[in-house]
Structure formats: C-alpha cells, structure tokens
C-alpha cells in the first residue's frame, strides 16, 4: 500500500504567506457548514506591533492511499485556534476572517474534485496527488490575496459583503465535494 500524508499550514492575513506542517488536534476547528467562527476561537495573544487587526491560520490536512481495490483520499480544512489572534472584536472583521476559512474550504472542494476525477480516470498516483496539493496551495494563496485586496482587509464593507456572498455561492456550487473523504474503486481499471 502506498500512502502519503500531507499537512499544510497557511498563515493568512499577513503581508505574505508562510507554509509549515503540524498535527491537528484539539486546538483546531475543522470546517463545517454549520459552524461559524467566534472571537473566542482566536486564542493566540495578539501581536502588539503588527499592522494587522487580526491573523487567521487555516490550512489543509490531506492524505492519499491506494491499494489493489481502491483509492482513498481525505482533505480537511482547519482553523488553528492557538495560532490565530485578533486585536479587535468588530463584526465586519470577524466576517472577513470567516471568509478566509470559507475560501480555504472552497479551494479544498476544488482540490477534492480534481482528486476524484483523477481517481476515476485511473491517473492518480502519489506524485500526482502531491502536485495537486501544491497547485491547491498556490490557488489558495492567489484567492486569499485577491480577497484581501478586494475587501481592503475588511475595510471596504460593500466589497466585503459581496465577497461573502460570492464565497457562499461557490460553496453551494461545489457542494458535491463537501465530503472530506473520497473513495473510488480500482476494480476494472
């Protein structure tokens, strides 16, 4: 059985994105359509001299396995409570931070879609999965940057509301890929 486990951490709401690895646990919230972030989820002490009002850490936990009978992958979006912080508890800012988390889930659903299509075509492998993961991270980085710039980091209220609605629409459009676990039979291939 070939297996790969990739954990990717992306630091958002900063001037750049920093990548790392970790093991999710009780300090992490996995994305769910019935849970929205609250300010008490931001447990890290705010960075006093940061130019930012808030800092969210979101990322993916992903794994891929293949054996004689099936392909299996799992791609979960998470929010790191003990690494995220806020200096201000303004509703618009919280909406913006939720947008970062939701955008990560939109991107995860696109990633799951590509993985499932490759599984069904029989073209998936460990290296292909790794390439897809790298591309998903690049796509997310671009989307997060565009989001921050378009909303002026939550300061443009009208744009923030438009983006929040667009993100909800994207989540709905990709609802078929909401399940974090993907299993496709290899029989007959």
List keywords for this structure.
8 strands, 189 residues, 3 helices, alpha+beta, 6-stranded antiparallel sheet, two-stranded antiparallel ribbon, elongated
Question: How would you describe what is shown here?
Answer:
This protein has helices at 91-121, 126-151, 157-173; strands at residues 2-11, 19-20, 28-30, 54-55, 57-66, 70-80, 85-86, 181-185. With 189 residues, the protein is an alpha+beta fold. The protein has one domain (2-185). The strands form 2 sheets. Strands 1, 2, 3, 5, 6 and 8 form a 6-stranded antiparallel sheet that branches. Strands 4-7 form a two-stranded antiparallel ribbon. The protein is elongated and about 55 Å long. The two termini are 17 Å apart. 33% of the residues are buried. Mean pLDDT is 88; it is low at 1-22.
**Strand fraction band?**
15-25%
Give the % helix: 25-40%
Number of helix segments? 3
Kindly report how far apart the N and C termini lie. 17 Å
Total number of domains: 1
Number of strands: 8
Shape: elongated
- Summing up helix and strand content along with how strands pair, one would put the structural category as alpha+beta
Overall average residue pLDDT: 88
Parts with pLDDT < 50 across at least 5 consecutive residues: 1-22
Rg is 17 Å
Element string (H = helix, E = strand): EEEEEEEHHHE
Largest sheet: 6 strands, antiparallel
